Write the structure tokens for this entry.
Amino acid sequence: MINKVATILVTGVCAIGGMTHPVEAKMVRIEVERTTPYAGGRTFGEAGAFERLEGTVFMEVDPHDPRNAVIVNLDRAPRNAEGRVEFSAPFVLIRPVDVARGNGKLLYGINNRGNAIEIPFQTFPQLAPSALDAWADGGIEPPRSNYPDVSDGTLATVAEAAKTFPAIPGVTFPTVVNELWALDYGPTFGPEGGRITMLPPARGARYQVLVPTTDRDGHDLAGIRTVDIAVPVGTNTGWNLRPPGPRGQDLCGLSGSFIPFARTQADRLASGDPRASLAERYGDHQGFVDAVRRAAERSVQNRLLLEEDARVIAAMAEASDILR
């Protein structure tokens, strides 16, 4: 996507960052303070070379607009001559050096805090902006969503989901999940924000937390089957447990797991692994490469993967040491 779309990242927006409800803000001016070559001057397809602009964007909001009522303490902020509240934020803009060679689209990202980062649009996520662009410009519906659902058995309680996970030696399915409660932060804080007057918050009713069920390999049944899930070399999970000791068996935050398959049937039988081995699945290295190529082609046909990324994935499979 970088050869087609300019990217702007804004950090530290002091009034509107992190709001979940729409607020109104007017951009007054932009000051570019530094311009440098992007990626060492490397060229990207028809768009050519890119450049990185850094600077400050100046904005203002109307404190009387009802949409801005969620901004905490806005009524106490100083006003300018027009009665509006001014604020600013640093920005980073990556664009073609020759802007006429771009497609006139802006991929906009905003962080509430931290560094200027953006989602790494690699392989599967990379097609999402293209699908969004086609939907917005041409009315072409994006690929169908595939999320877990109670009605089809792909979403269940922890106890129910544990029954679907394979009995892999040395691996324990989580027995606890992060609990979610209805929290009361005081009478001046509601669904659209406000002032917090009660800390810690009072707990109300507890939500029932459900998790995805899995297939015989331990992969979630629902969701987009990326090539590495459609043609796996091991089990990928969205969870990882702490080792025995303090808080043992609790979840490691933001960490998943990879549990490789045995190479041969004899290897897996010796360890008691119920999952089919690499040799049982693919036969040899070429069989693995062919399976990856077919899965990548299906993803392209289903508009889940760009052709250029499918070629990269196939080349990576060819260069791998799987079953060599």
